Amino acid sequence: MTHAASFAASAPSDPVPPADGNLTVGEALRLALEHERAGRLSPAEMLAAAIVDAVPQHADALALLAALRLRRAGGEIGREEARTLLARAVANAGADAPFFANVGSLLRRAGAMGWALAVQRRALALDPVFAVAWFNLGNSLSDGSDAQPQPAARAYSHAARLLPNHPDPHCRQGDLLLSLGDPGAAAVCFTAAVQLTPEALPARLGLGDALRAQGRGNAALAVCRVALAVQPDSAAALTLLGALLVDDGRPDAVVAGVAVLRRLAGLCPDDAVGRLALGEALTRLADGAERDSADSALRVALALRPADPRSLRVLGGECFAREDEAGATRWHRRAVALARSAHGAGRVAALRVESSSRATGAAHRTLAPARAMAVDTGTTRWGEITYRLPETFLTRVEEGRVHPHHFTVEAAAGALVVDGLHAYSRSSLTMLPHIVHHHPAAVDGLGERLLVDLPHAVQRVEEEAILLGGDGNFAHGVLDWASKLCVLERFPELAGLPVLVSAALRPAVVELFGLLGLSADRLIRVEPGVMLSCRRLWVPSLTHQFQYMAPEHLAFLRDRLGLPTESRGGVAGGGRRLFLSRAMAGHRGLVNEAEVAGLLAEAGFERYVPDGRSMAEQIAVFREAEAIVAPVGGGTAAVVFAPPGTRVIELTHERCVLPQYAILCALLKQPYQQIVGTAVRNRGVLAFDWDFRAPLDAVAAMLRPLNGSDAHR
């Protein structure tokens, strides 16, 4: 069958309906296409309808008429008419891949997303190397509430390989990869598109966005300025330039960014994205007058795009910063309603973050006051690190609420106890799904507030209980949450009470708790997302904050497990050399693990996969370790079971250079070295979750002093 998309013959200048007998069906269809391409929709539709009346099974005419109805009528009526016509077209079509590719796109526009996917796949079954079908499949997969971004990116990748000189598949693939948190791969796609069409702004600005997401602000600025040289009044380029200047953070750069975005507001007063960027930039300025300007810009952005979730979220955050809690709640509820959440907004409340002593009063018992800690890491990078160990305490809360996900405690009168219970940074705290907005504390440490959206359903705990908490991370379980057992050891009178823990705890961590004296039969497992209401709750604190270890916890851990605290001379452990594999990890993977493992094998290292191993086995293996090479990740925490004198080499990347294991190893008297590689892609949700490549030359250099100890083996 010949299809409308392939017609190119000329037609008479005056349209004549087929019913007059002056045109054949083929001539009428060619003429209808000419009218459609020239924007003359009425005569095009008249001709297509006449063909369908004369030949009701004419698939090409049915498809063209559907396209014209979509363009003319719009709305649900036009989409319904188009779907009916396209059903007839598909039923009467032959085995022609271009036809099905075109019809799939029309079905997508008509809102029949599932059907569109089926038709696109039918086109590819007929012609697996038809590039347009791959591109259209990517479009269908990336649209709507049921979008499938990863399969869509793969479809665009196929299209890009089949159309190497066309920029669109590269750009669309780059957009998707950027949305999937892989700006490195997105930058590669946008660079390819820029090389094909250097003058095209979407590709160049996409590259700027990808570079910005990688934290490469200067490179993104250079790309943005080239775009502005091509088109000085480009709204998208000015928005990116303003955002990049604000990202810089220096006061003069933020002011310059605001000036750019104000210029954009004058040039394009109806540009919602630019108005939102201006509102966000103005919130960065401390000037009270600018806060009113920020509010105005955000309200204009919202008026231009009333259903934009980001505008609602930013405006709500600005209201919360100005202590307009009612306004913040109102905008949040609207955002939830627009998202059509099945459960809607829950209990939305503004809470004050308070210390345990202020929130619980006389029930609070201090075991050790906050104090400074200095640790010499023995490394060039970190040297001596001084940090603050928080107060260690036990408190009791009557009729308290335990918040989901992070096990902080809401006491009476809207006071939330966070410090001592939550191991991580405030930025991590605000990533939790039920926390809507966060207003930091003032210089005096007071005034910290949270707006939370908590579930209405509350699980009641009538029996007196202890709150321990936890999560699904092995390292946090061993190094952080287990430290609460160090505190509880001081209170043997509580030993018979049940203990509330996260149901996400790893089995190995539960096993460790048992080895430390907390038997599994005392545990009450709390599912993620569940809100608890507790009649009486005993709340032990952590002994430290994330990364910055307390020696008391390490001493408790090693004493209870019967591990040595001093080196016995000679080779540490049993002389085993371990390379910890992250091959099973979902993120922070070592992309050249096979090469690193091969290099280490020559020096006597064995590949060890800790995932799924029992705690007893891991302790037995690590207590025999002479040297450990570990890519950054939760499994590295097992160095805590290795003897003093064990050499520890951590492999990481430039986006995750942390002092955590330098401090831990120093306290354990384990020589430590950190090798920094190159981030490649991010499959996780956090800024440091990148997969990375370790530099083989640095790994080889690290092995030389170790190889000098082979005589001891």
UniProtKB/TrEMBL annotation:
Compositional bias annotation for Low complexity: 1-13
Domain annotation Glycosyltransferase 61 catalytic: ranges: 474-649
Annotated GO MF terms: glycosyltransferase activity
UniProt region (Disordered), positions on chain: 1-20
Membrane-traversing stretches: none
Highest taxon above the source species: Bacteria
Protein name: DUF563 domain-containing protein
Source species of the chain: Azospirillum griseum
